[in-house]
Amino acid sequence: MYDLVIRGGSIYDGTGGPARSGDVAIKDGLIAAIGKVGSTEGRQTIEADGAIVTPGFVDLHSHYDGQFLWDDKIDPSFSHGITTSIAGNCGVGVAPVSDEYQSKLIDFMTGVEEIPEIVLEVGLDWSWRSFPEYLDKLAERKYTMDVGVHLPHAPVRLLVMGERALKHEAATADDIIAMSAIVRDAMAAGAQGFSTGRVVEHRSSDGNYLPGTFALEDEVLALAKALGEGGRGVFQVAPRGELGNTFNTDGSDGREARTKEHRLMEKIATVSGRPLNYGVLEVFTDEADAGIMIGQSDQAIARGVGVYPMVSPRAANLMYTLEGYHLFMARPSYLEVARMPLAERVHALRDPVRKRAILSESDVTSPVGVRDHGVLLKYISANNEQSFILSSPMDIEPGPERRLGALAAAAGKSADEYLYDHLTAGDGTNVNLNIVANYFHGNLESTRKFMMNPNTIIGLGDGGAHLKLICDAAHTTCQIAYWTRDRSRGERIPLEFMVEKLAAAPARHHGLTDRGVLAVGKRADINVIDYERLTLKRSRIVHDLPTGAGRCLQPSQGYLATVVAGVPTRLNDEDTLARPGRLLRSTAFTPELVR
Ligand SMILES: [Zn+2]
Q1: How far is the CA of 287 from the centre of ligand 1 (A)?
Q2: Cα of 49 to ligand 1 centre, how many Å?
Q3: How many angstroms is it from 463 CA to the middle of ligand 1?
Q4: What's the 44 CA to ligand 1 centre distance in angstroms?
Q5: Does a structural domain hold residue 136?
Q6: What CATH number did the domain enclosing 459 receive?
Q7: If you measure from the C-alpha of residue 113 to the centroid of ligand 1, how many angstroms do you get, rounded to a whole number?
């Protein structure tokens, strides 16, 4: 007798092969049989007739380090078929920590990942100090999915070097010995790997660079070596130039700096003997950059050096709405009504007198409630006409006719007025967005090519971060609904290929050998999806964080079931309240490609 039988689906097992129809039987959290299963052999049944059955999705790039401590649902990822989520990326996180520097770690998370300070202050009780103690805290908790965490560089550097880390001084030999010891201990305790952030655009909320941004090669390679000694985990890098700014302290810039960065990553992979993944986006400052970086990785991999580019399946969007950030948020007449509940505020904003006032005003310099967002506001305003006016459901690849400037001109209005009317229409939840990467040519053709490369990993969802600006954790749904089914502006991607990219490929990269494919003996992490009906709905700000703070969620529709370790966590798009997910500690594995 099986615990659960998923009956009559079209099975995409994650190996990249074509679908076959059949049943999937589950016992004790594992897949026990695939094929034809007798109708009386399951204690519980999920009818999958007409649906597709895939492995649960494995997301290697999230920032739930704080959320793992106060939340067990792990949305937005939970609503999008993700059954394993790895946080602690980009060099930021919440452990290790000393008594002195707790608020600094919050500054890093707030500045780099745009998680409101107040949320982290209320949500974290700092009942841990070392990274192993932090993992033990997570091990006491239960989730909708398995969760793992990297040891992040910035907290390690701050703990060992104190103020010198904040001044970006070079690490001494003693510092390196102390940091290496922390890496060894964290890996032995089950960290998923080590992450470092070298992106100069990533700043803490006080404007300072992140500790580790300018770490020299001797430090980085020593930590890579310490990681490698344990024979487990991967090395994750947010490299210099990922967001376009390639400025290096050694004076190199542009192509030269990026090539150096790739060389450094090759050395890390070689010294550690571990797989490395790094983020790469098609930036607006250099059209060719992403292709060159990915090409260098292809060459490295061909030589047996495991440097894997992580690419995003869609454009990097900043989403503006009345409930989050928007062009008018610092205008005096807007600030008068800014604190009203949304419905009331929308009503007040439609008053023609107020509208005329807001449209004629300039931003106040330090408005209440929009502290620290001067830079963002300048960006919003500079790119206003180029932003896209979105219709529902979300258009992933909007054409030039959806740009605010074009729509306003056609309507005979100013761009500001057109936007104002758009944001204040309906129930006030309309959005416009700025695309900040992966849209150099105004389409996603290069994104498609990057995804089709067998060496890339698809990720960069940043779940748990950028709460009011970005909701890319929904990208897994987009990968299936948009890329394999809906795209009309160019070629689509075969579904069987995409399923492999969503589950098997990232699991393989991280040595998660027990999951990622549907096969007898593997973990029963499974999605049952109504393929025809799968939809990514429009983003919305939902006020459900500790303190009632808002965050952007992009709901989905069409997940008939998500199963984790044999237990349905989601049925017909609803949370079953089951929490079979646990902390995932790393285990030793031999990378496939690194010699
Ligand atoms: Zn990140």
Answers
A1: 22
A2: 38
A3: 9
A4: 39
A5: yes
A6: 3.20.20.140
A7: 7
- Tell me how far the alpha carbon of residue 465 lies from the centroid of ligand 1, in angstroms: 8
Q: Give yes or no: residues 151 and 244 share one domain.
A: yes
User: What is the domain-level CATH number for residue 48?
Assistant: 2.30.40.10
- Residue 309 has phi, psi (to 5 degrees) of -75, 135
Task: Tell me how far CA of residue 330 lies from CA of 313, 338, 382, 397, in angstroms.
Answer: 33, 9, 15, 30
Q: 278 CA distance to ligand 1 centroid (A)?
A: 10
Query: Does 396 share its domain with 270?
Result: no
Answer yes or no: is 483 within a domain: no
Q: How far is CA 495 from CA 35, 68, 395, 577, in A?
A: 20, 31, 20, 30
Cα of 462 from ligand 1 centre, angstroms: 5
Using only C-alpha atoms, what is the Rg of the chain? 24
Q: What is the mean pLDDT of each run of 10 residues along the chain (595 residues)?
A: 96 96 97 91 94 97 92 92 96 94 85 69 88 98 98 97 96 98 98 95 80 96 97 96 80 86 97 97 89 97 96 87 88 94 95 97 67 69 89 78 94 96 92 88 95 92 65 81 94 97 96 97 98 86 71 86 98 97 95 63
Ligand 1 centroid to 408 CA: how many Å?
35
Question: Which positions ≥6 away from 331 have C-beta within 8 Å?
Answer: 357, 358, 361, 362, 363, 364
Domain contains 70: no
Structural domain boundaries, residue 558:
2-55+519-575
